[in-house]
Amino acid sequence: MDPGEVVSQHWERMQARDWDGLGELLADDFVVEWPNARLRIRGRENYVGFNRTYPEGWSIELLRIVSAGSTAVSEVRVPHPTVGPYYAVSLFEVEDGRLTRAREYWVEERREEPPAERAHWFEDLDD
Amino acid sequence: MDPGEVVSQHWERMQARDWDGLGELLADDFVVEWPNARLRIRGRENYVGFNRTYPEGWSIELLRIVSAGSTAVSEVRVPHPTVGPYYAVSLFEVEDGRLTRAREYWVEERREEPPAERAHWFEDLDD
After folding, report:
1. How far, CA to CA in Å, does A29 sit from each of A39, A43, A120, B45, B126?
2. CA Rg, chain B, in Å?
3. Closest chain A residue to B85, measured at CA
4. A interface mutation test: which of B89, B113, B120, B124 has the most A CBs within 10 A?
5. Which residue of A has its CA nearest to B40?
6. Does the predicted TM-score (pTM) go above 0.90?
7. Is A117 touching B (CB cutoff 8 A)?
8. What are the pLDDT digits (tens) for A56-82?
9. Which residues does A118 contact at the CB level (< 8 Å), separation at least 6?
């Protein structure tokens, strides 16, 4: 599988709750960094465990993958009945068909009101 | 300029406050969407104007560009003396050497405390 396909499968297997299948896509020492939250998850077991035990109800909408060399970037939207929805943009590194590292930005979907004096630069995305 | 170089120049000229030079990289009808904030900035003039008038003190740290075909993704960190720092991940489309569209996620750097029962999955990124 090329890097883009590995990342596509990562999200597909997560959506399917195929935790063994997800683990097969990860290097043993896979590390994901969340730069804005200043957190890191280290190792396949922790990454799968974190996701497996996340409070249920979520789904994965894969919006796009941009793949170049050993890097693949994904943009996903994650609706959930009680929180979010969240978006995640993930910059994955792939070696030998497995994910080795990622930097990932999770951000909640929440309509922002620009300050009044700056509102004229903007349109509402939902209009 | 290839798409990655256009995006690199976009950030370089923004850092330099080279507003005319920034405008030269944008299609007239350049549109940036902020999906999580549900906001959109439409047109070169508004995009340059918004950035030109943003309260001063910010700087741009270009962390990485991932370029594939007509798409280039950038990851930047934006320190500011009174807010943030912020990260932005931007998925730009480039045609004929100009930026035509972007989807951009801005998120503040702020240490998150995972819930106690989930903290064991994480490490502190700054340790």
Report:
1. 16, 4, 48, 47, 19
2. 16
3. A36
4. B89
5. A123
6. yes
7. no
8. 999 999 999 999 999 999 999 999 999
9. B50, B53
